[in-house]
Each structure stands twice: as structure tokens, then as C-alpha cells.
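Researcher: Batch entry, complex prediction.
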Amino acid sequence: MSSTGKLTGAYWVRATRAALSEGHKWFPRVRDRMIVRRHALKLRWFPRGSDGEHVQDLDWEYIKSLPGEQIGELRIHDSIGGHDNIRVIFWVAPQKSTDPMQTIWILSVFQKKRDDFTAAQLATFRARKKILESRL
Amino acid sequence: MTNSLDKPLDAQSLALLRAYVECSDEVREVVGEMVRIVSDENTDREDREMALLTIKDALFPFVINDQNGMNLEEADAMAVSVSEEAKNAIADLDREEEEFATRLQKLMIEKGVTQQQLAEKLKVGQPAISNMLNRQCRPQRRTIYRIAGALGVNPEELWPNIE
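Model: C-alpha cells for the complex:
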């Protein structure tokens, strides 16, 4: 349920401060940040099981180098703010019994410059997930 | 010769130490790992910055309205409340998406294509088309090209100045 009370998708999407800071760094223009945010909000319709594709350009996959961590990358192909190959790294958190919907956490936002993630990046994604888990 | 360790700790350093002491063992372990990344001379600048941001998150929880993190759906509303630039940007983006949805609807009617038929041509579920018509999804450029191809129209008819 959105803040307007309208049902919008099956997941809440929340962002860590680190992800928001990275958004400001890569996209200093307000408009560009908002565009990235709108693409990230497509994760509200993150597909689960055989629900089918509700958002046709939700181009994502779980990060293979982090098996079983439920950490994925959302690929934004448009050039925004002069950057292409934009990645939104997200974690699909387990549902708490008190919550009507699951939450997807945005862990990081950046321009991916290599085919593979660096060891430092993978460690950072895992670390941000652990911090969130410690606070659930 | 003076040593930087001879200087008394400032308020910021003390706040950092206090935050570290108050962390759980798990979070301290995370901080340790990030410090190793930052300290490694082979770590590039961007990876170092990511690790530093992670340390900040570990030591100082980010809480808004008693909840961890920021609800992305509410982020626009918060930006608008503090910035005229944000208000104008949102109005612009909303207008672009509304005009796209109107053009898409019009072209589908002209071509006699239903949501289901368009969905089948694009090999997606019908809800994906519905989401775009209801402005719940800002399409990427390549999606616009695919839709234009499926409808047999120029992409500029869906999104002017798409280039």
C-alpha cells in the first residue's frame, strides 16, 4: 500500500542510507535521481514464483557470486545523468510475521564498469545486508 | 617530532568509538571487514567510498519515522516538501509518463490491439501493459522500441525525442 493508500505492488521498497548517498553521488541532478528511483520502484512488482512478468522491463537476476543471499542486481539500460550500465543492488528480505508485505531493500546504486563485481563490492553488499539483518 | 596520536581525541572520534563499542558483535565484524577494504592499498577509490559508507551505516543507524531506512515511495513526497526543483522535476516526469500512456492507449485503439494481444506480442504478462497504461511503470528506452515494433509505429510516436 502506497502512502496515498493505493495498492501498488507486492513489496515495499526501502533504501539504506548508503544507497541514498550513492544515488546523490552518481546523480547530483534531482531529476536524474528521481528517474533512477522510479526504475528501482519497479521492484514493487518483483516476480515471485510463477506470478508472471508484471513489469516488462524489470531486468534483474540474483548475483551468482552471492549464492543463497537473495541479493540481486536490477539493470537500468538507459543513460541517466551521463551514466549507462546503472545497477541497483537489492536484497529480498524475509517476511516478518507482523508485516502484510515483504520488503526489498536497496543496498547500492552505481555505474557498473566491469563485467564482474569486485571482491570488495561483493563484500560490501553482503555487509550491508548483515547490518539490516541485525536490525530486523 | 609530534605524533598525531599525541593530540586529544576530538568529539567526532569519541562519537565513533562510542558507536563502535555499542554495536553488536556481528556489526563489529562487518566494520572490521570494511576497514580492511578501506586500508587495502589495492582497493580502488570507488570501492573504498562504498566501504566507508557501509561503516557509517553500521555505526549510525538511519531511522526515519521510527523505521529503518527510507521508504522509496515516500522519497518523492519528502523531496517535494523541501525543494522547488524536486517539485518541478516530479511534475515533468509525471507529465512524460502520462503523455506516453495516453499515446500508447491511442495507438492501441487505432491498431485494434488489446492489452492481452500486445502482451502476447511482447511475450509479457497482461499486467505489464496495464501497469504502463496506469502509469505505474516508467518504461526504459528499449521497452519503448519493442512496443513500437509490436505496434508497427515509429518510437517517436510513443515518446517524442526518445533519442
